[in-house]
Specification:
It is built from twelve helices and six strands. The N and C termini lie far apart (42 Å). Helix 8 links the parallel strand 3 and strand 4. The chain has a six-stranded mixed sheet with strand order 1-2-3-4-6-5. The chain has two domains: 115 residues, no CATH class; 151 residues, 3-Layer(aba) Sandwich (Aminopeptidase), CATH 3.40.630.120. The longest helix is centred in the N-terminal third of the chain and has 21 residues. By secondary structure, it is α+β, with helices and mostly antiparallel strands. It binds coenzyme A. Coenzyme A (COA) binds next to helix 10, helix 11 and helix 12. Coenzyme A binds next to helix 10, helix 11 and helix 12.
Amino acid sequence: MKDRILKWFDILQFPTEWKTATIEAINTFDLAEIEKQEKPYSWLLEQENKIKGMLYALYKCEDFFDQGIKKGIPEEILVATLQEIRRHSQNYNRATKGEKIGLRQIKWAEVILSGRLYCLGRLEFEMKTTQKTWENGGITTPGAKVLSVHIPRTGGPLLDEEAEESFKMSKVFFKKYFPDFDYKCYFCHSWLLDPTLKKLLKPDSNIVKFMDRFDIPETHESSAGLGIIFGGDTTYENVLEKTPQTGLQKSAYEHIKNGGKLLEGFGFIEK
Ligand SMILES: CC(C)(COP(=O)(O)OP(=O)(O)OC[C@H]1O[C@@H](n2cnc3c(N)ncnc32)[C@H](O)[C@@H]1OP(=O)(O)O)[C@@H](O)C(=O)NCCC(=O)NCCS
C-alpha cells in the first residue's frame, strides 16, 4: 500500500517537500477503515484530517489507471486526468497558507477516479446524465446523456484554439473508448457562462470566446465566480475590501460596486 501511494505521489509530481510528511501519514493510515465504509468518499469528506483523503485518492489512482489501460486509453491521457488530484491537493495547501497537506475536494476526486471523466488537452469531459429539463431551446431532458465540460485551473489561460482542439479530441475519444455512451450534446454549468461578463471583458477575451460556443438558455445569480475571480473566501459582503488587479477583477469590482451581481449559466453545444 505504501509503495503504491508513493508511486502515484511521484508520477503526479506532488511537491517533493511534502514527501516526509506523506510517509509519516502513511505509517498511521488505516486503509481498511476507509474501505469498510459504505460510501468511502462521503466518509472521507467528513474527516477533519484531509490527508486521509489525499492518501486514499493516491492509492486509488492505480485502479483508475489499470482500468483505462485495459480499455486501451493512452497512458498520457490517464495521467493527465489524474493531475487534478495533485492540483486540488495544492489548492488545499494554498488555502491553509501552506500549513496543511491533504485533499478537501474528495468528492471531485471520486468523479475522476470513477472513470467518468477524462482530461483531453485543455478541457475535461465528464459522462453525465441530466437531472433537469431546459426550456427555451434547451436540447436536453432529464435522463439524457451529456458530456459535461469542465475547465481545470491549470494556471494557464483558456486559449480558443486549445478549447477547439479539446472538443475535437472528445469526439474521437468517446466514440472510440465509450461507444455505448450515446451523448446528446455538450453541457456546462459555470460562472464562465455568465452573459454579464461580456460587458466586463474585452471581446477578444478567452472567456467570451469560450462562452460564445454555447447556447445559454438559463442563468442564475451566484457567488461562485467571485471565489474564482477574487479568491476562495470572497463573498458579496467582502468583495469591495479586495484590491482588484487583473482586467476582470477591476471591471467585476466596479460592476458589483454599482449594485450588479454575477451569474452562473447552463450552456449546451450540439454534438
Ligand atoms: C478559465 C480561465 C483559464 C480564463 O482565463 P483567461 O484565459 O486568462 O481568460 P480571459 O482571456 O478571458 O481573461 C481576460 C482578463 O480577465 C482576467 N482573468 C481571467 N480569469 C481570471 C480569474 N479567474 N481571476 C482573475 N482574473 C481573471 C485575465 O487575467 C485577463 O486580465 P487582463 O485583461 O488584466 O489581462 C481562468 O479564469 C481560470 O483559470 N479559472 C479557473 C478555472 C475555472 O474557472 N473553471 C471553471 C469552473 S466552473
